[in-house]
Every structure is written in C-alpha cells, then in structure tokens.
C-alpha cells in the first residue's frame, strides 16, 4: 500500500523544516553533552558548557516556535489506509510518543537551565545576553536537579530513536509512503 501524497496528507514546508532542524539539533546537542560531561575541569570545558547552554536555549526557542506553528497548523491526520492497517497499540504509541517528545523538547533545556542556575553559573546567551536565573544559587538543589537533566536527555534520545525506528519501519518494511509526508521532495 503506497500513500499518494497530496496537500491534505503532507506536512507544511515550515513544519518539515522545523522538524529536521530540531531533529539535527537534538542529536548534535545530545552527543556533544555526552562528550563534554566527563571532561576534566578546564577553560576548554567551561567554553564547551557555555556552547551547550547556548544550544539548549536555542533548542528551547526552536521548540516554542515549533509548538506555536503546530498549534496554528495542525499535523495532517494519518491517512485512513495507514491508520486502519496499524494495530491499536501502535496508534496509541504514535500519539503518546509525539506528546512525550514535545514535553521533553521543553523539559530537558528547562531542567538544564534550572541546574546551571542552582549551580551558580548564569546563562549568558552567545556571551552577550544574560538570561535570568530560573532558581537561586543553591548547591544542594543543583545536586538534586543535575541527574534529572541527564535522565530527561537520555529519555528524549530514546524517544527520538523510537521515532526514527518507526519511520524507517514504515518506509522500508511497510512501504506505505508515510515518511514522504515529512520530506521536502515529496
């Protein structure tokens, strides 16, 4: 069953661009965060942490733009032939995964921002725009928040992998054309 693409079942071009830019940013910042987490304390590590914070704030802004766009330009419904072919649990997983992805798009950078605020390190976006602390400096609170940034980041990475695996299954196993809805080439 091959999906015939038309304006009703395709994503808008802006949605497609936001999807792929956010996806690339999330994968990049995840691996960057894993790399820098165990570096010894040094000026280089501080610089990398600042870049990580800038990227996190940029992802937070991009996520807000994506959510605003999604609220004003809803996703096209799953084509009937695909929705009927999917078991009920897959449809529920499809919806829950998307809700969880959006929640973590915001939770991960906000938890990171709260951690860095509690640790007493301000976020100065691109080295020029100081952002307000989300919480006051408190080393004990920072110690409580820090693992949640890592846990939420790994949870987001797992959901991204699940999302990619499902898309690849639709493309290579089901061959239903669903992935083409998120392609600029259509």
Q: Percentage of helical residues?
A: 55-70%
CATH topology: Fumarate Reductase Cytochrome B subunit
| Rg from Cα | 19 Å
Question: In CATH terms, what is the architecture?
Answer: Up-down Bundle
Query: What low-confidence regions span 5 or more consecutive residues with pLDDT below 50?
Result: none
Walk me through the structure.
Helices cover 69% and strands 2% of the residues. The mean pLDDT is 93. With 186 residues, it is an all-alpha fold. The two termini are 17 Å apart. The protein has one domain: Fumarate Reductase Cytochrome B subunit (Up-down Bundle), CATH 1.20.950. Helix 1 (13-37) packs across helix 5 and helix 2 (43-72) crosses helix 4.
SSE layout and pairing:
Blueprint: H1 13-37, H2 43-72, H3 80-85, H4 88-118, E1 124-125, E2 129-130, H5 139-174
Antiparallel strand pairs: 1-2
Helix pairs in contact: 1-2, 1-5, 2-4, 4-5
Brief characterization of the structure:
With 186 residues, the chain is mostly helical. Helices cover 69% and strands 2% of the residues.
Defining key terms:
Fumarate Reductase Cytochrome B subunit; mainly alpha; 5 helices; two-stranded antiparallel sheet; 186 residues
């Amino acid at each position: 069953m091959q999906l015939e693409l038309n304006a009703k079942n395709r994503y808008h071009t802006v949605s497609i661009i936001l999807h792929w830019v956010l996806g690339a940013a999330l994968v990049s910042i995840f691996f960057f965060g894993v790399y820098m987490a165990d570096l010894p304390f040094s000026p280089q590590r501080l610089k990398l942490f600042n870049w990580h914070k800038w990227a996190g704030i940029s992802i937070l802004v991009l996520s807000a733009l994506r959510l605003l766009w999604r609220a004003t330009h809803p996703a096209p419904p799953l084509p009937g032939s695909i929705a009927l072919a999917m078991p009920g649990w897959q449809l529920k997983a499809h919806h829950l995964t998307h809700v969880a992805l959006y929640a973590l798009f915001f939770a991960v950078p906000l938890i990171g921002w709260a951690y860095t605020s509690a640790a007493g390190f301000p976020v100065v976006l691109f080295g020029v725009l100081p952002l307000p602390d989300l919480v006051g400096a408190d080393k004990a609170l920072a110690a409580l928040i820090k693992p949640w940034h890592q846990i939420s980041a790994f949870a987001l990475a797992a959901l991204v992998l699940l999302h990619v695996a499902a898309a690849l299954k639709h493309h290579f196993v089901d061959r239903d054309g669903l992935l083409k809805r998120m392609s600029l080439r259509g």
